[in-house]
Structures are given as C-alpha cells and as structure tokens.
Q: What sequence folds into this?
C-alpha cells in the first residue's frame, strides 16, 4: 500500500437533475474519467446526464456542467484508450458513439439478429459431428449435438445485474459490448421458459458490428478486454436451470477471441455453503474484471456475503495462479466490508487502486521469487510458488519440475482460500514463513530429503510440518516477513515483519522471538522513511532494510536502532547482498528501470547492466539475465575486484555470457548441482550449467583431492578431463594412487586417458603421465585394468603398439580369454591394419591371426593365404627369409635386408644366390649404406656393394662421389671417367698418373679437360691444365688472357720465350688478346652508360607526369573513368571489380579471394621485373635498376685494374687504348654519381612525397615505397688502386 502522501478532497459538486425515474438509481455514476488533453473530468450518471468539469493547475475542479443527456438513461459508458471516442449503452437498448466533443457519430440498436461483418461460417469441417470419436462412436457426436442444443437453451446467471458492459481493446481499434438479450425457449423442450442470456458483440471504432459470440449458458456481466488484444474475459456459472452443464459449485472465468469463439477458461476457487432457502443460491458473485497495463495480471472483484475481495490472477504454462487477495477494509460502523470501485494504474503495471465507502487504498505490488539461499552442502534449491491456498514446492537440487507441476504442496485446509501476502525461506534452515493479513504467520519445517527419491512425487522427498501459526501482537499492517533460526538454540526462531502501524508515519521492523510454542521477546525498530521499503539479509542472518530512496540501513533489533550503511543510486525492489567477509560485502539491487546496481561497504558504486531483467547470487557467482536475451555469469571474486578498482579502471571486463530464450528470467542458483534455473515467459523451465560455475566447482574438488566427483562432473558437463592434471600437475602426479583408488570404473580411466592423448601438450609429457598411471594400475591389478594399461600405450604420440601387443603376449599364457577381450578393445583404439602389421612385425602369427579374426576390416580370403605363404617360406628357407618377407611387406627395408643376410645361413638358401638377391634388393630400395654395415668385413661383398653404389651415384650425376666409390671398389677406370665428368682435374690426373697412364693418354686427357674448363669460363684452371698436361702453350696463354689474368699470361709468355726462343708468342697471342679484353670492357662500360642516360631521362618524364597528371600516372589504364567524384568507396564488389584510383595502389589489402590476391601479387612482381613502359611499377623498376649500377661499375673497374698496367707496357696502340679506357670509366663513374644525387633528392628516404590531383583530391603513395639511395663505394676495393696514373 502506497501511503507516501495523505489523500485530500480537491472538489465536491452536486447535480440537481439526477433524480429521474429509472429501474436503477439515477444518481449512480457509471463513469468518471479524466481527459488529460482537455484537463477535464467527465462524469456520466445512470440517469443519462453527461457532465464535465475543468481541473486547473491547483488540482481543483470547477462546478460541473452538463454537456448532454440521454433520456432513456445510460447503462454503461467507456472512453477509448486515446479518449477520442465515447461508447454509451443507453437504457432503450441502443448503442451510441460520441466524439470527444460529445457529438454523436453512430447510433444503432444494440440487440440485433445480425452476426457481424467478420462472422465465421461453419461448414462442418472439424466440428465434433464430423470428427472420429474412436470407441465412443456416434454416441459422442450425439452428445456433442445435445451439448450445443443445451447451450442454445441456456440463459443468464441468477447473479447477473442485468446491465450492459463495454470494454475497449488496448489499441482502441475495437470494443466489445456485453448485454442481456431476450431469449425464448421452444415449447417442445422439456422445460419451456422465457429468459435472457448474455451475448458479446464486437464492434470496430466506427461502430460497425464485426462479430457475435457463440451461445454460452450462464455467462455473467463481468467484461474486460485484455490490453494486448488476445482475449476477452468474462465469467460463467454452472449448476442451475439455464446455466452451463456442470457441478453446482463450478464457476469459471472464461475467455473469448475477437471472433466470438471460446478460448479457454479456469475455475474460481471460492468455498461456499449452499443456501437453498434464500434468494441467493451462492454466498458470493463475480462483479467485475480488470486487466493491468501490461496484460500480465487479471483482477477479479468478488462480492461475498461476508465482504468483498479483489483477487489477482496470473498465468504461466497454461495454468492460472491466484497470487494475491485484497480484502475490503472493515467500516467503522461494523457493516459488511464492500468495495465501490477498482482500477489499475494506466502506466505502472502492478499498481491498483480500490475504493470503499470510507477508504481509498493504493496498492503497489512487485514480483518476488521465494527461493532458498542456503549454501552447500545443505542447499536444497527449494522454490515456493504461491497458488491460492497452496504453496507449490520444488527442491531443484533433487528435481526439476516445471510449474504448475511441483514436487509437493503445502495446502491450507478450507474454508481458507486467500493466498499469503508474502512468503520467504530461512537462510540458515530448511523452513519457510507465510504472512497473512492482520499479521498472521505460519511457520513450516520442510525437512527436504538430501537425495533424489526413486519415484518422482515420492512423499519422502520432503515431509513438511507446521511449526507454529498465530498472530504477531501489535497494530502493524505487515507486508513482508523474514525468518531465521538461532545459531545458539535450535528451537528458537526469529520472525521479522515490515509494515506500517495503523496510525504511523514511518516503516517499522518488528522482530519477534519464538521458542517452544510461545513468543518470548518482541522488538520494534522505526525506520527513517515510509512506503515501499524492503527487508533483506546483509551477511548471513544480519537484518537490513532499504528505503524508498535507495538508502540501506542495518537493523539492530536488540538495541532497537537502524544504522545507515550505504545508499543505492535508486530504489531497487529486488535486493541481495554478497559477502566475502563480515567487513567486505556488496549489495546488488535491480531497479524498476532494469538497472543492476552494486555498492560496496566503502561506498564504491557501479552499474553492471542497464537492461537487466533478473539476477541472483550463489555458488560464488553473480548471475543475471538481460533484455538482449543473454545470461551472464560473473565470479564474485572478480566482481569485488572490479568494484574496488572501478574508479581507476571504469572499463567493464568481458565476462562470460551465453544466449538464452527470449524473455527468460532467472529463478534460482543451485550450488550443489552447479545449475541455474531459467523460466521462459510461457512458464517452462530451462536448466543451464554455466561453464565458469562448473569449472569453479571442479577446481575446488581437485584441490581437495576428490577426483571422483571432479571426473563425474566433467563427464556430465562435457569438460575436457585434462583439467584433472592441468589444474595441479604436481599434486595430481603425487596423488596418482588416490586417483586410481577413487576411480574404480575402467571406462572412466580410459576416458581420462583418451583426453590426455588428445591434448596439445608435448609428446614427452603425455608419455610421462601415461607411464606413471600405468605403473599404478599394474601395482593394483593388471588383469582388471588391462584395457586401461593398453590405453596408456595407445594414446602416446606415436602409439606404442608393439609394447601393447607384447603385454598381450605375456598374458596369453595365463589368461587367454582376457587377451581375447583385450584384443577386441584395442582394435577400437587403433587402426586394425596397423595392429595387424605390428603383430606381424613381432613375427607372431597367432597374435596376427587373433587380431585379424576380430577386425571388421580384415577379409579371411586375403589374410589367411598371406599368412600361409609366410609360414611356408619360413619352413622352406628358414626364419631369416620369413622375416625378410614380413619386413619387406611392412616396408621395413633395412630389417628386411638384415633378414635376407641371415637367410644366407640356411643350407637350402645360401651362396651367391642370396647375395645377388640382396644386391638387387639393395639397389631397388637404395640401401647401400645399410648393406655396407651388414656385410662389413667381407671384402668381396663390400666391393660389389661399393661398385653398385658408385653406379647409382653416377646415374644421379654425382660424379665426384661416384669416383670415390669406384676407387674404394677397385674400379680405377670407372673412377677416372667419373672424375673427368666431375671436372675434378687435380684428382683425375693424380689417379691417372697413379694408374700408370701413358704420355699420349695424358696429353689427350689434358687437351679434353682444358677445352672443357675453358668452355665453362674456368680460364685460369684451363690454362694450367693446357700448359702442364697438354703442353699446348698457345692455348694456355690464350686461356690466361681470356680469364683476365694478364700477370700470369705475361709471365708464362716471358718464360716460354726465354726457354724456347718463342718471342713470336708475345705479338701473336698476348697483344691481340689484350686489345680484345680492352674492347670487351669498353663495350660493357658503353652499355652501362647508355642505360643510365635512357633511364635518367625517363625518370624526368615520369616526374613531370606525376606532378601534372597524377590520375593518369596512378591509373594508366583509365579504369572506372576519370571522374573521381562518382567513385563508390563502399562497394562490396571488391573481389570482381577493379579498384578505383583511391584504392588500387594503397597498402590496405584487397577484399578479393585468396587466389586472386596471389595472382595479383605475382602479376605485379612480373611487371616490376619487366619494367613495362606505362605501368605504375615502371618508376620503381628504373630506380631499382639504377641502384644496381654502382656494383656493375665496380666489377668493370676491377677487370680494368688488371689490364691497364699491361696496356701501358705494350705498344703505343695499347697505351692509347688504355688511356681512352681509363678516361671513359672515370667519366662513367662521375655521371653515375651525378645521376644518383639527382634521382634521390635530399628528401626523407622513408616517406614518398604526397601528390595532389588536379581536383585537389589527396592521393595515396604507390603500393611500394621508393628504393633507398645506393651507396657509392670505392670501386675495386680488393685492389690497391684501379687507375694507372701514368696513363
């Protein structure tokens, strides 16, 4: 009840004309509506007068003025939701529609035989008469026809007041009128009579009849159209002449669709005693209905013999719950309590106003979830749902039963049907308290079971018992009750009530101590404000209070004082505290606007969400749902840490969130099951297990050494079992014995090992874990854990298949049945073919046969002949040859070669035949090194293998290596050929001389080798060979000269001339070769000079073009036109359409496919390499080319440095040619230096200049930055000085 402001009388007026002779009191008001746009109040009387009065700024009403009258009187009136249209049901049976200026826009008879424009036509499809009725047959169809006939005969309820009702749909497009229509029953019926019955008619906004309801016997006057527009509500009586067929005490709230058809119902739960001697058969009647603003609560005004009451009903999962009952206040004169009106607030959905002859009561309700907040391991997760006189109880730790189902019920016996005002559960005991009017309370001990019963609904799931019920003394009008148990005395309970004294102006918290059936102590604490305050537990069982302004105070009831603590940013109807310790706590509150606030003990504040719909704290986490249909789970440690640092780091962390069903609300957190219960808007439940919550519990179990519980939780919630090791690696390895003792199920250990094998950790660490666990399993019971032991081998990387099979071989002698089962298991761990090959590689045919028999992939027609063939080979040629065949099949060629070597010891398969096959096998599989190791010590065999190896190398053109092999194999002639092919002339002539080659052979060999070396431009080596071995002085000197080694050439010529008197060699060979080399160097310098001139000139042209026409420079192909104004930079066709001048050469990557990126990249590389004229890459290509010129010039100068001294010494012609060559090279060097300085200006080398287009548009630089400026080093750095100063 809202009592923030005292009511006051703002106006009183009378109208003398309200005294007409009508069948009902003419002065009775049928409507009183405030019109906000005109700031007037419209009052309509049953006598037919329509009066208005203006409300001024001081909230006073002027004298009423009658603006119109209806002579026949007015039965009912209702304004449209937008206050533009007024509907009147006149006393003469007409319906009138008026504008807001009270002008009639429509008038027509209310009671008409027409059904409406949208009336449905029944052609019999889907009706009861045409449906299949199973074993009931045609009798069911006949019964349906009789029911339809009875409905047509039905009349109105005896409780009907006879007056019409009007109700608008929430959007103002339609309205419905309920009226009594005269109805004559045919005389051939068993009980002919004339009676009236209720009919609903739906009209549109202009007054056109749309639909008429189907006949409903016993339909009553109550009428209300749901604001959302889905259904129209009324009531129906049963069990009287002309009423519905049913029990006499049946009374339903019925629903209609806009087309007039029925759409469900629910029954009222009134308890009454028949009164056959009175005019009124029942002790109550339904007077009116009213929907709240958001269509979630239906108010039912019930008029009982002993007093009126307004019941508030809600629905979920197609069930209607009676949540609250508001009794009429008792008059001071002792008369029967009655209401005179009820109305919901138009904007606040849970606010309702009732009036009585002496009271105006304003009630403001809030949704509250009655949940158990006990911590583990005592938590039950019990949720209580109020449904009239029953509490639907469900402990979600044990069962998840969606409402209206429940695990058990706490039902109050009749005649009590009123629901409790408030229900809450004790935070430290399995108990619940129910608060009723007049401060009456009931304490229930729930005694919930700790384990799930075998049968759902087993009464042993809980055994609730009533502890005490009674009335708390005092004059407190209580609205909230809390209960907790004493920590010192088990049978001592504390009951806290929050309310307002009858004549008080502040909230009062009353705490009562109950022990052994009687109240022992009573405390009262006056709070700072009054109104919508709430109580909650601060830390454990410490009582706290929140006021209407968000202020929070601790209630010290023993000293009867309230100590202010903190202040929330605004009033929060839903408040819960989260405590780390007695001094460190946080208060979380959910405001009416959906903001989730939290404030700490040191006044640090933060808003976690601005669109929160529900929240709860438990299991070390804060969980809340949002309007974006997500559920967020925050560890309390992180939450408290964020709150402490919110001022320094206001950015909220990215906490775990998951999508959920639209509109879902949080019901409860169950710590023991690591679950969060969510409820969808339609009422069904969803259980989720947030991963952070599950991981937190699993980690706690691991730290405590409870590996079984941790493994079962991981298995249940599909968590990688690697966490058992990864969370505490050292602890797990030290407690492996405990792990094995706790996990008795072999399958669970296998599951753990499988996850270990799939982990990304190093293979060595995986092997270490598996070996340690296998050691513990072998200590305990090898036969029991044989599958797990095999798994430890198979999950390694790579799998240790042979060790696994070796274990089976050891166990085969003692327990063959166990081995057979183990083989069936190991086949599912590894590829059967790999297992078969491994067994075969162990040379155990029986094991290979066993694996093949249990393998689904092996065909007996294939493996049986194969095994038989291997067995026969061993019997004929020995075990060595059988191993050779097996290893060759397994592609273990080295072992196969060893087996072939061992097969030579068998008497039937020895001698050259074995070695010949070994040589063939060695050459086929390139096993030359292995063969040398196997046949070491056998000279003849080794030489044969070396010769084979040399031929192999010779074929691969590894001539030098082949020559070495031939030398070791005593094949000198093949080695000489190989050396000659390898151009290893030193080794060649050394071996030839060693083998005693003749002089002529050496001369021929030297000539061949020298010419070959010269052809490969190895001139110096060629000269030495020709001079030393071929004795060809002329060709040797020519080779030296061609190689640029003029010092050696000149020395050799001088020596030959002196020894052999061949002075003609200087003029015939040396002088011409010097000039020839000079001309070659000159040509290279000229070519370099011409290239430099062309490229520098082209760079100047490109620079001018870049400055004058940047669009043409960067877009040489003219793609997408020259009009840059029309470029769409947001196009999504980047993968198929060429880029614009803005985007084509930027650093940003293209939006094309991966293939197109590579293709584009390669094409640009090719363009840069070719330097095609006119491309964007041309400038970069030229700069790269000029950057390489200094190195080319240096190479030319190095060659010239060896030649110039001898040009100076030779003839005058040579001297002149030397001067010209030196001058040309110096000019080229100067020109190159000048070009480099000109091309690379004194700009920042790391930034390309930014160009501007003619239109002023800023263009990006090319895709690649300009090459760096080259460094001009001193040419010929390897020699002292390349120039000859005498020249």
A:
């Amino acid at each position: 009840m809202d009592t923030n402001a005292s009511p006051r009388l703002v106006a009183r007026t009378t109208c003398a004309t309200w005294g007409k002779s009508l069948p009902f009191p003419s002065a009775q008001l049928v409507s009183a509506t405030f019109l906000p746009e005109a700031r007037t109040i419209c009052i309509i009387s049953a006598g037919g007068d329509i009066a208005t009065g203006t409300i001024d700024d001081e909230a006073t009403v002027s004298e009423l003025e009658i603006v119109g009258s209806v002579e026949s009187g007015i039965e009912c009136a209702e304004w449209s939701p937008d206050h533009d249209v007024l509907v009147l049901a006149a006393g003469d049976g007409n319906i009138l529609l008026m504008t807001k200026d009270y002008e009639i826009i429509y008038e027509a008879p209310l009671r008409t035989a027409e059904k409406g424009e949208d009336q449905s036509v029944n052609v019999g499809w889907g009706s009861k008469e045409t449906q299949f009725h199973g074993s009931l047959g045609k009798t069911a169809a006949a019964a349906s026809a009789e029911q339809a006939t009875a409905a047509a005969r039905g009349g109105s309820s005896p409780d009907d007041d006879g007056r019409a009702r009007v109700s608008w749909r929430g959007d103002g497009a339609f309205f419905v009128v309920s009226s009594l229509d005269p109805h004559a029953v045919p005389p051939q019926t068993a009980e002919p009579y004339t009676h009236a019955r209720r009919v609903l008619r739906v009209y549109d906004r202009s007054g056109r009849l749309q639909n008429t309801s189907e006949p409903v016997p016993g339909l009553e006057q109550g009428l209300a159209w749901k604001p959302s527009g889905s259904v129209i509500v009324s009531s129906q009586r049963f069990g009287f002449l002309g009423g519905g067929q049913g029990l006499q005490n049946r009374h339903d709230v019925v629903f209609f669709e806009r087309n007039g058809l029925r759409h469900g119902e629910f029954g009222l739960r009134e308890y009454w005693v028949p009164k056959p001697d009175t005019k009124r058969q029942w002790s109550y009647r339904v007077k009116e209905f009213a929907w709240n603003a958001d269509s979630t609560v239906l108010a039912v005004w019930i008029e009982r013999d002993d007093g009126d009451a307004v019941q508030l009903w809600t629905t979920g999962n197609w069930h209607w719950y009676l949540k609250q009952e508001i009794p009429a206040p008792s008059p001071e004169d002792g008369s029967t309590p009655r209401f005179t009106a009820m109305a919901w607030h138009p904007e606040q959905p849970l606010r309702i106003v009732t009036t009585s002859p002496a009271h105006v009561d304003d009630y403001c309700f809030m949704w509250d979830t009655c949940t158990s907040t006990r911590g583990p391991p005592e938590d039950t997760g019990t949720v209580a749902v109020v449904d009239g006189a029953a509490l639907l109880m469900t402990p979600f730790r044990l069962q998840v039963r969606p409402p209206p189902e429940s695990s058990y019920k706490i039902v109050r016996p009749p005649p009590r049907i009123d629901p409790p005002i408030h229900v809450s559960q004790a935070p430290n005991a399995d108990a619940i308290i129910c608060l009723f009017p007049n401060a009456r309370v009931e304490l229930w001990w729930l005694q919930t079971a700790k384990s799930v019963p075998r049968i759902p609904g087993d009464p042993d799931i809980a055994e609730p018992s009533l502890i005490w019920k009674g009335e708390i003394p005092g004059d407190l009008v209580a609205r909230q009750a809390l209960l907790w148990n004493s920590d010192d005395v088990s049978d001592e309970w504390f009951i806290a009530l929050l309310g307002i004294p009858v004549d008080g102006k502040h909230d009062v918290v009353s705490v009562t101590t109950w022990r052994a059936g009687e109240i022992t102590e009573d405390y009262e604490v006056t709070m700072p404000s009054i109104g919508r305050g709430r109580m909650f537990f601060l830390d454990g069982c410490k009582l706290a209070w929140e006021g209407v302004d968000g202020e929070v105070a601790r209630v010290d009831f023993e000293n009867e004082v309230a100590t202010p603590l903190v202040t929330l940013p605004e009033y929060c109807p839903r408040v819960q505290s989260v405590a780390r310790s007695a001094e460190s706590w946080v208060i979380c509150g959910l405001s009416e606007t959906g903001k989730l606030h939290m404030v700490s003990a040191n006044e640090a504040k933060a808003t976690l969400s601005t669109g929160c719909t529900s929240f709860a704290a438990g299991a070390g986490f804060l969980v809340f749902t949002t309007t974006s249909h997500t559920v967020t789970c925050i560890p309390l440690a992180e939450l408290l840490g964020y709150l402490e640092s919110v001022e320094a780091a206001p950015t909220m962390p990215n906490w775990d969130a998951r999508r959920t069903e639209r509109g879902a609300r949080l019901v409860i957190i169950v710590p023991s099951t690591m679950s969060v219960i969510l409820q969808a808007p339609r009422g069904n439940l969803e259980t989720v297990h947030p991963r952070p919550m599950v991981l937190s519990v699993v980690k706690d179990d691991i730290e405590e050494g409870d590996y079984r519980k941790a493994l079962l939780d991981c298995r249940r919630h599909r968590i990688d079992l690697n966490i058992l090791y990864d969370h505490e690696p050292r602890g797990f390895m030290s407690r492996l014995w405990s792990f094995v003792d706790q996990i008795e199920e072999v399958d669970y250990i296998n599951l753990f090992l499988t996850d270990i094998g799939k982990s990304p950790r190093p293979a060595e660490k995986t092997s270490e874990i598996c070996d340690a666990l296998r050691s513990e399993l072998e200590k305990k019971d090898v036969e029991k854990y044989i599958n797990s032991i095999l798994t430890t081998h198979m999950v390694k990387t790579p799998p240790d298949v042979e060790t696994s099979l070796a274990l089976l071989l050891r166990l085969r002698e003692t327990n063959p049945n166990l081995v057979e089962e183990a083989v069936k298991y190991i086949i599912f761990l590894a590829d059967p073919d790999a297992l078969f090959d491994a067994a075969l590689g162990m040379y155990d045919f029986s094991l290979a046969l066993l694996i093949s028999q249990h393998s689904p992939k092996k065909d007996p027609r294939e493996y049986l002949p194969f095994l038989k063939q291997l067995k026969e080979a061993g019997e004929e040629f020995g075990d060595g040859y059988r191993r050779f065949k097996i290893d060759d099949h397994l592609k273990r060629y080295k072992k196969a070669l060893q087996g072939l070597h061992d097969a030579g010891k068998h008497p039937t398969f020895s001698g050259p035949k074995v070695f010949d096959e070994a040589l063939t096998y060695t050459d086929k599989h390139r096993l030359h090194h292995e063969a040398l190791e196997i046949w070491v010590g056998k000279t003849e065999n080794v030489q044969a293998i070396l010769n084979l190896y040399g031929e192999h190398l010779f074929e691969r053109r590894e001539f030098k290596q082949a020559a070495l092999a031939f030398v070791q194999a005593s094949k000198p002639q093949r080695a000489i050929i190989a050396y000659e092919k390898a151009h290893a002339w030193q080794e060649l002539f050394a071996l030839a001389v060693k083998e005693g080659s003749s002089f002529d052979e050496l001369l021929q060999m030297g000539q061949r080798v020298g010419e070959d070396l010269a052809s490969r431009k190895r001139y110096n080596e060629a000269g030495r060979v020709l001079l030393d071995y071929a004795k060809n002085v002329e060709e040797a000197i020519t080779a030296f000269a061609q190689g640029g080694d003029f010092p050696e050439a000149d020395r050799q010529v001088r020596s030959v001339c002196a020894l052999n008197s061949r002075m003609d060699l200087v003029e015939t060979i040396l002088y011409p070769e010097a000039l020839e080399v000079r001309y070659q160097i000159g040509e290279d310098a000229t070519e370099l000079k011409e290239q430099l001139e062309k490229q520098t000139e082209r760079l100047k042209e490109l620079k001018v073009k870049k400055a004058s026409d940047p669009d043409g420079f960067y877009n040489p192909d003219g793609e997408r036109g020259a009009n840059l104004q029309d470029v769409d930079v947001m196009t999504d066709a980047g993968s198929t359409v060429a880029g614009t001048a803005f985007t084509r050469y930027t650093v940003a990557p293209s939006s094309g496919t991966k293939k197109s990126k590579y293709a584009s990249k390669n094409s640009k590389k090719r363009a840069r390499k070719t330097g095609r004229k006119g491309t964007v890459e041309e400038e970069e290509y030229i700069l790269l080319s000029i950057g390489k010129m200094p190195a080319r010039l240096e190479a030319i100068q190095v060659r010239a440095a060896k030649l110039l001294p001898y040009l100076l010494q030779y003839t005058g012609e040579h001297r002149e040619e030397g001067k010209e060559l030196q001058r040309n090279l110096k000019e080229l060097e100067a020109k190159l230096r000048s070009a480099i300085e000109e091309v690379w200006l004194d700009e920042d080398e790391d930034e390309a200049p930014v160009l501007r287009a003619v239109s002023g548009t800023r263009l990006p630089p090319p895709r690649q930055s300009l090459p760096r400026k080259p460094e001009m080093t001193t040419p010929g750095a390897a020699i002292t000085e390349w120039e000859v100063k005498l020249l």
The first helix runs from residue 138 to 153.
